[in-house]
Amino acid sequence: MPDRPEKTRALRAKPAPYENRAPRRPKQDLPKTSAVTPQSSKRQNLTLYDKVQILDFIDKNPGIAQHRICEHFANRPQGALIFTQATVSRITRDRNQLLDRAESNPNALSSKRPRVVTRPDVERALYLWVQHLNGELGETASGPMLEAKRLEFEKAFNVQEEERLTGRG
């Protein structure tokens, strides 16, 4: 082998020690929101938490015009929520369903769309199986495991073929 001259690389700066790095923000225990910085004017799909906040604001300010509600939330210092007057109308129309959904499942506050369950009995059996798997056995269920177990439960509960789920959902 012929001798090659060694290439020299530029020295890299050493990384800063961990204690000198900027501290992480503490994790908040609040539901997700669609709030954006006030400079952004792009409309967002609102989470259930955002919709409940709008309903609370309407309750505290009876008789306020719907376009004023939009302006109030668009100019909030803690983060703007950009939506239209039609959205306020839809939220007030669906008030009972939104509040029922928020009360029945507090974890749904971070979701933007309602979760549809076609077979509550199969859903409950899957939930209990995952709890058993995580708690007593210390394992985590993967997607293919959930699909196979769902199929087992559908057979066990005599779910009609046309009612069975076929996708990965």
Describe this structure in words.
- The protein has 169 residues and is mostly helical.
- The chain has helices spanning 48-60, 66-74, 85-93, 95-104, 120-135, 143-156.
- It contains six helices and no strands.
- It is flat and about 80 Å long.
- The chain starts with 47 loop residues before the first helix and ends in a 13-residue tail after the last helix.
- The mean pLDDT is 82.
Which labels suit this protein?
169 residues, mainly alpha, 6 helices
Q: Which percent bin holds the helix content?
A: 40-55%
Give the low-pLDDT segments. Answer: none
Please tally the helical runs, counting DSSP H or I stretches of 4 or more residues. Answer: 6
Arithmetic mean of pLDDT: 82
Which series of helices and strands comes N to C?
Answer: HHHHHH
Query: Over the alpha carbons, how many angstroms does the gyration radius reach?
Result: 26 Å
Q: What's the β-strand tally? A: 0
Distance between the first and last residues' Cα = 60 Å
The structure class reads mainly alpha
Ordered list of secondary-structure elements with their pairings:
Blueprint: H1 48-60, H2 66-74, H3 85-93, H4 95-104, H5 120-135, H6 143-156
Helix pairs in contact: 1-4, 5-6
Give a quick rundown of the structure.
This protein is mainly α. It is 42% helix and 0% strand.
